[in-house]
Amino acid sequence: MGTLTANRAQVIEDLIAIARELVQTVRNSVTIDWTLRENVRARIRVLVKRILRKYGYPPDKQERATLTVLEQAEVLCAAWAIA
C-alpha cells in the first residue's frame, strides 16, 4: 500500500510542477493582442508541448492538453493584464 501512495504522491507532484511551469511560461509569453495573433499563439503552443514532453505527458493527450491550456489562458489573460 505504501508504494501506491508514493506513486500517487509523485504523480501529484509532477502535475503541480507542470501546472506551475505552464502558468509561468504562458504568462510570460502573452501580449496584449496575443489571442488575435496566430504567430504568438503558435509560439505558446510550441512552448506548452515542450513542457508536456519534458514531464513525460502522454503524446496522444498532448494536443488536447495544449488546447485546454490556451483556452484557460484566454479566460485568465484579462486578470493577468491587470496584475
Structure description:
It is a single chain. Helix content is 83%, strand content 0%. With 83 residues, it is an all-alpha fold. Helix 1 (2-29) runs antiparallel to helix 2 (38-54). The longest helix has 28 residues, at 2-29. The relative contact order is 0.12. The model has no long low-confidence stretch (mean pLDDT 86).
Features:
83 residues, mainly alpha, 3 helices
Round the Cα radius of gyration to an integer and report it.
15 Å
Q: Mean of the pLDDT scores?
A: 86
Strand content: under 5%
Tally of contiguous helical segments: 3
pLDDT below 50 for ≥5 consecutive residues: which ranges?
Answer: none
Structural class: mainly alpha
Distance between the termini: 44 Å
Largest sheet: none
Q: State the helicity in percent bands.
A: over 70%
H-E order = HHH
Question: How many β-strand runs?
Answer: 0
* Mass-distribution shape: elongated
In a few lines, what is going on in this structure?
This protein is an all-alpha fold and 83 residues long.
Which helices and strands appear, and what pairs or packs with what?
Blueprint: H1 2-29, H2 38-54, H3 59-82
